[in-house]
Amino acid sequence: MTILVGYLPTPEGEAAVDAGLREGALRGERVIIVNSPRRGAPIDEHKIDDAAGTELLRRAREAGVDAELRQPLHDDDLPETFEALVKETGATLVVIGIRHRSLVGKFIMGSEAQRILMESTVPVLTVKAAQ
């Protein structure tokens, strides 16, 4: 079985990796860390480099978890990318970090995290960054 962890280089992303690795260790499941840059973006501040990817995999090994890093490109539909990965990998859980947003911010911008929660065909664990 597999756990998908959504990762951005943010405090919320770090919280998601920590929670995903804990779940992977508890369940004895493989973890796929997903860092998905937007297709065609000239600069994507959320895409991690090789050194950061190596560090994430080192943390997984240290936690006793078999892990891999994937960086699939997505267009404007990250939740759809996650659902495709759920189907491809047979994932049983998705872990994502969430941040506080105002109601106006949610209304105007929408929320990819909310869509992942609502549209996922497997359970979704959401975590917040430590205060």
Written description of the protein model:
The chain is α/β, with parallel strands linked by helices and about 130 residues long. The chain has one domain (about 1-130): HUPs (Rossmann fold). The protein contains five helices and five strands, in the order βαβαβαβααβ. Strands 3-2-1-4-5 form a five-stranded parallel β-sheet, sandwiched between helices. Helix 1 links the parallel strand 1 and strand 2. Helix 3 packs parallel to helix 5. The protein starts with a strand and ends with a strand.
Brief account:
Helices cover 44% and strands 21% of the residues.
- Based on CA inertia axes, which overall geometry fits? globular
- Provide the spatial order of strands within the biggest beta sheet: 3-2-1-4-5
As a percent range, the share of strand residues is 15-25%
Instruction: Please give the CATH class.
Output: Alpha Beta
CATH topology: Rossmann fold
Overall strand count: 5
Q: How many distinct folded domains? A: 1
Uncertain segments are none
Helix and strand element order: EHEHEHEHHE
Q: What labels would you give this structure?
A:
alpha/beta; globular; five-stranded parallel β-sheet; 21% strand; Rossmann fold; 131 residues
